[in-house]
Design goal:
By secondary structure, the chain is mainly α. It contains two helices and no strands. It is elongated, with a radius of gyration of 14 Å.
Amino acid sequence: MSLQTHLSQLAAKHDALERELHDAIQSPSTNDLRIAELKRKKLQLKDEIQRLQSHETLH
């Protein structure tokens, strides 16, 4: 798998988490723990994307 393909897949997962997080925030039945978990996962993906992009520009 190429780096660009991997970055595209990570970006798609990040976007899906963004939508899921938005829906969770809008739903009164979602607890704060679930929202915090989604935010953490989204941030981890963002960090990985940035790390891979910076690694790509160095090479």
